[in-house]
Amino acid sequence: MKLTTHTLGYPRIGAQRELKKALEAYWAGELTREALEQAGKELRARHWQEQKDAGLDFVTVGDFAFYDQILNLSLAFGVIPPRFQTAPEQADLDTYFCMARGRAPTGTPAAACEMTKWFDTNYHYLVPEFQSQQTFSLQPQRLLSEVQEALALGHQVKVVLTGPLTFLWQGKAQGDFDRLALLPELLPVYAQLLQKLANQGVSWVQLDEPILALDLPQSWKQAFETAYNQLQSAPVKKLLAVYFGGLEDNLGLAVQLPVDGLHLDLVRAPQELQQVLDRLPAYKILSAGVIDGRNIWRSDLESLNQQLSEALERLGERLWLAPSCSLLHVPHDLVQEDQLDNELKSWMAFARQKLDEVTLLVASLSGGVTAEQRQALEANRQARISRNGSHRIHQPTVQQRLAAVDPAMLERDAPYAERIKAQQDWLKLPLFPTTSIGSFPQTPEIRKARRDYKAGTLDEAAYRAAMQQEIAYCIRQQEQLGIDVLVHGEAERNDMVEYFGEQLQGYAFTRFGWVQSYGSRCVKPPVIYGDVSRPQAMTVEWSVFAQSLTDRPMKGMLTGPLTCLQWAFVRDDQPRETTCKQIALALRDEVRDLEAAGIRVIQIDEPAFREGLPLRKADWAAYLRWAVDSFRLTAAVAADSTQIHTHMCYSEFNDIIQAIADLDADVITIETSRSNMELLDAFEDFDYPNEIGPGVYDIHSPNIPEVDWMVALMKKAAEKIPPQRLWVNPDCGLKTRRWEEVTPALAAMVEATRQLRQLN
Ligand code: GLN
Ligand code: ZN
Q1: Do the beta carbons of residue 194 and residue 236 sit within 8 Å?
Q2: With contact defined as beta carbons under 8 Å apart, do 624 and 656 qualify?
Q3: Which residues contact 280 (CB under 8 A, 6 or more apart)?
């Protein structure tokens, strides 16, 4: 029996981040457009070859993008906002970069398109902007020529396109109209594109509709039927791909749509296989997404083999196998990791290895295993046994400690109303206290010192001395500016998550584990592989040193458990909740140690708090419960007179305000300036009881904020929140700014505060 294999998508940045380098060189004017196009072409060819070498039946075309695959589609359909002043047929690569970044080597700069997270991933796409009179026109050249390239290389091609409903859903109407109303205009363009692909000899097109894993309004559900009925006659086979979650209430709809196949994410929703098997019409294939496209662990092929045996029996060759989603979300190739030990490495699979898992699973399912594959299957089994029993993963003391957590550990001693008095007694802060979010400029000198230290050319003592000097400078600046509650500036931290991960047990770091975040930007998430514990204090020395330099209160600065979890690859052998609480316990000890060392204002950053929300509303309550508990487990060890701050970046608070209040932080600072204080409405409506520092200026912009503007913003804030409970601070950390920007900006902020105090 021959089962078909494919991948929904593949990383495009290159194992050595070649695409990043080429893009940045092109933007800097150091690479010609031809050379950039050539770099793209070579990467595509290499990545298709990897798919072929792994033994996949198709290579996937259409997942490549110089910036973002959704932006590719916007251009392919002529969706170019008027401010770029370019007709669809005139758009070129620089129009594309202009839309992505606001500027390009040629063309007139204009405000870049909005960027936002792709579902619950850390990948950011460019939001299509639809005008009320939006028309669509097909500009398929780029895609068609990529198809041509793949065909010329002798590949069997499957094309991937984001489907029409997900494309509309992920976009934004500019003005007061429903973007779903654009569907009738959009569908003919999709149909034309499918026709053109058919003309080129493409037999399968994968239409990604991950929104079928969301709670959809009735009108959108109905639109699926309309849309796919209309696309039905296009002479290609259509594979409808759903991932990042289960179909749930959309299951009946999805199995019935007039397409030729359905892809399911059986990593996120293994329980749906049975139902789909029972309901899938006999003419459809089922693509089983069983290899985890969102994490870096090796699959358990033996158990997958068992899980799929019934599907195999019932579907025969109508069963296809694939990763659960595009492999865009995992690093490229584990083989490069020469500094991970062999044991850890044997537990992992990156994109390239995941392709092998797909073909290996097919071989084991269909019984045609070669000698080499038998060995690979055995290695897979051994790795699982080693991982299940490893002492490096399972730390009885950590597990016992977590089991012994009792509800009292989640409670501060007194309620906020009493705590705040104990805090004010010693803090003696003025009305509208000023502070900052933590980091100060990461100067070229700081980066160089860190590089030299890592390279071994700067010894530890010299490195520490250099960082201490930076900290001292930062404190002096804040004192001169007249800020009330100081920070040390985080000079010693390369990254707010990595810094802690490197000091915790249970974490590993890769050298090349880059994952595209947006455009040319990549992140390298740490790997949490085992029970997490804290061998020793992580921040205390730095904070104590900083406090010794000033009489003003110094904030201790920690990254919270949810953010540590959310921005890492997390072990999949226990619930995320358990891992999160282990981190929380480690951080709890840090809070206790900071406090014992005399640090009595402690900030626990949780910028990723909201990001962790599940895609389906029905799952929110469960997440929020353990998320809030984890934060409280970290914080509640603090004495009442110790002031706990938290910080969250730009996010909606309306639908999670109860959970925010349940965190029971004494002070929360939030990113608000871009929303004109509108984010405070949620706090106002809720009668949020604790203190709030709404950011008064946007740290992402190099512009110096105006005093009047900040005064006006704070007046607005004071209409919503009693002034006694308001703080004044920037939106977020200042590490990406230069001192020449930071000093005048903070001076203006302090001046605005002075004026505000006079008014009150
Ligand atoms: N304390 C961190 C900083 O100032 C917070 C960063 C963040 O919110 N992303 O850099
Ligand atoms: Zn922030």
Answers
A1: yes
A2: yes
A3: 255, 262, 286, 315
- What residue numbers bound the domain in which 556 lies? 396-400+423-759
Helices 540-548/460-481 angle, 10° precision: 50
Q: Whose CA is nearest to atom 3 of ligand 1?
A: 733
604 lines ligand 1 (CB under 6 A): no
Indicate which residue's Cα is closest to atom 4 of ligand 1.
Answer: 733
Q: Which atom of ligand 1 is nearest to the CA of 559?
A: 1
CATH number at 542 reads 3.20.20.210
Ligand 2 centroid to Cα of residue 673, in Å, is 12
pLDDT digits (tens, 9 = 90+) for 196-223: 999 999 999 999 999 999 999 999 999 9
Q: pTM above 0.90?
A: yes
> Which residue CA neighbors atom 9 of ligand 1 most closely?
607
Residues 493, 351, single domain; the answer is no
Q: Is the ipTM of this complex over 0.85?
A: yes
The span from the CA of 285 to the CA of 293, in Å, is 21
Query: Which of 512, 523, 524, 509 lies closest to 336 in space, CA to CA?
Result: 512
* Contact predicate 504/583, CB 8 Å: yes
**How far does residue 645's CA lie from ligand 2's centre (Å)?**
13
CB 127 within 8 A of CB 113: yes
Residues 374 and 484 in one domain: no
Where b means 16+ CB within 10 Å and e means fewer, 268-284 reads: bbeebbeebbeebeeeb
The reply to whether 700 belongs to the active site is yes
Question: Burial level of 676, CB count in 10 A (0-12/13-18/19+)?
Answer: exposed
Q: Give the whole-angstrom CA distance, residue 53 versus residue 49.
A: 6
Ligand 2 centroid distance, CA of 437 (Å):
7
